[in-house]
Amino acid sequence: MDEMKQKIIAARRKGNNAEEMELLRLYLHENPDDSVRSLHLAEALRTLGRSEEAGRLLLSLPDRLNAGRYPPALALGVLYQQKCMPDEAERWFRKAAELNPGTGGTWALMGIFYMSVGQLDMAHAAFESGLQTKEGVDEAHVNLGNYYRAVADYSSACDHYREALRINPECPGAQHDLRGVSVKLFNRMPPSRPVRGGRTRLGERDSPNSFAPLGLAQIGGYATPR
Which residues contact 56 (CB under 8 A, 6 or more apart)? Predict the structure, then answer.
């Protein structure tokens, strides 16, 4: 059985969801009470587009799994988000946060959901909650950086990317995002220009509409559970 588990892990690392699904089915046929592997199977099914089957399986899992790092309630939120059912998605994201508020991934995925439906204040609140968890605080700063990038507050975005790198110099994506936002911030600096009398004055500040926020379809790289 250990050999089967190793095969399952290898398939997941390769990103071969179809192979992982088949191996998990074989494993669960012999070990039907392994709820954690059932959760993994539900995720493989969701990734393969078999959302109805994944949903039924997630709803059948015991409540004790909601104390884990990636609880079934959170997986259901992701599933309904994928199915474009925002009311159901929000209900399950909120339930996941209620059951396990100390998991950084819960707040990350909730915030990403709110960004996807344009509820920016709710997204900001979710990402801020991620700072209060014991894990993934660097990732919470990356998500806040991406939030501020989306609303064109590039200075605040830089601050959060820098804080993520201070906490974890290897934080995924933070260095790349910081460079990109630093360029945007530099480009927004008002130029000096000559005026009559030989003096110089600062150019007009950018109007609020001069730099439109990134569209939601352009927002990528949010930090999710490792």
Answer: none
Say which residues have a Cβ less than 8 Å from residue 205's Cβ, sequence separation at least 6. 190
Predicted confidence band of residue 190 (pLDDT cuts 50, 70, 90): low
* Contact call for residues 142 and 111 (beta carbons, < 8 A): no
Count of beta carbons in the 10 Å neighbourhood of residue 3: 7
User: 209: how many CB neighbours lie within 10 A of its CB?
Assistant: 6
Q: Say what the pTM is.
A: 0.72
What's the longest Cα–Cα distance across the chain? 88
- Model pLDDT for residues 82-132, shown as the tens digit of each residue: 999 999 999 999 999 998 888 888 999 999 999 999 999 999 999 999 999
Write the DSSP assignment of 82-151 as a string of letters: HTT-HHHHHHHHHHHHHH-TT-HHHHHHHHHHHHHTT-HHHHHHHHHHHTTSSS-HHHHHHHHHHHHHHT
Q: Indicate the DSSP class of residue 188.
A: T
Fill in the DSSP letter of residue 198. S
Nearest to 225 by CA among 116, 100, 139, 143: 139
pLDDT of 189 reads: 60
